[in-house]
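Fold tokens
===========
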Amino acid sequence: MRGLKFGGLLLPMLMLFGLVGMHPALANEAMSTELAQPSLTGSFWAMLALGVFILAYGLVIAEENIHLRKSKPMVIAAGVIWVLVALAFAGAGQPEAAGALLKEVVAEYAELLLFLLAAMTFINVLQERGLFDALRSWLVSRGFSLRTIFWLTGVLAFFISPIADNLTTALIMGAVVMAVAGTERRFVVPALISIVVAANAGGAFSPFGDITTLMVWQKGMLQFHEFFALFIPSLVNWLVPAFIRVKQGGFIALGLFIASIALAVVMHNELHLPPMLGLMTGLGALMVLGYFIRRGEGERSLESILPGGMNDISELTRYFKPKDKPFDIFISMKRAEWDTLLFFYGVILSVGGLGALGYLAALSNLIYVELGATTANVLVGLLSAVVDNIPVMYAVLSMNPDMSHGQWLLVTLTAGVGGSLLSVGSAAGVGLMGQARGVYTFMAHMRWSWAVLLGYVASILTHLSLNASLM
């Protein structure tokens, strides 16, 4: 299954390697106007850098078989590629250019890192406070029919994923399906496929629904409200194939999360500040809330074991620890997906290095100029089914092709929902394969890929029809 991803990456990379390696003049002609540096794609160092990237990403794809975390090869590749970029620029008589370009790429990653760290912490706190468990328990206890569960889990996945990540959403809804139907393949497989499609589609119409949409928003290609033009196309993508036990402070944390998102939007739209500043400010408020939750839970836990005649809780803490540990915001922060965050570091710096050498300008000319924006953006979605959509979208953003708002919406849609075509095409699908091991498999998903493809095509046609004025 992972081999499919490697093949999907290797073929276009080898084509690009041969194209710009044998014909450097084409790369020079395709240079982005905003880049002042020369194209160095024909140099030995540039070709070596491309080989390093292909090797590193091959190890990422083989993660499931070799059990090497995906962040490790990419972090190393990022360092090696930028050393090669520096050598290439030094050979071209611009020894200081690589350092200046690297600072720009690192600054871009820093914004994404802080935003994601805050968002992941909020989601972890909501999980720890039991909001998602409460939702799952309510669904299981209601005694819904299988048909109702099918549609209800799909609807909830579609509307929760714009706020939570698609993996968390899929696992929660998948747990409901498994609890209700067990290993009944005839129901479980279509229901889980519906959840994968809904979670991926729901994330496509919100800047917060997927890393790719967040990248597009932070880059300034689309305004916050413009993403909602994808609501109906995203809904079509899913439809075609298709708070009882909450702990103290859980609802307040949810309210803070929503308020932080609103603050990030206001700061970005009205004050032209990076969105991460709003979410990091909200994270500070969440940390203060955590202080009061921790004090309340710590005191109640200690009072439950306070011996008679002892009134000083602080005295008791010298000798005893409570059975249930009180809430700690830094534990939720520690549970952030650091492997994923460091993987993003490796991808962003590696792709940025290839862009500095001129590869992305050449690729942009090849697909966006020669094929046209619509065809290219549809192909981006198909590619995201076999290659992780993060490097695909970052590459498109780095190419920065001259496109209308409608085309930027189209590539946001296709990169977001294209991963539903294969079970390994998104984190939601991979997560559910692990949760329903032996039931929901690669081949089980493939049997329904025709229906998912109809949804993919229908969503694109819907967008082209409804948003024709933006194209």
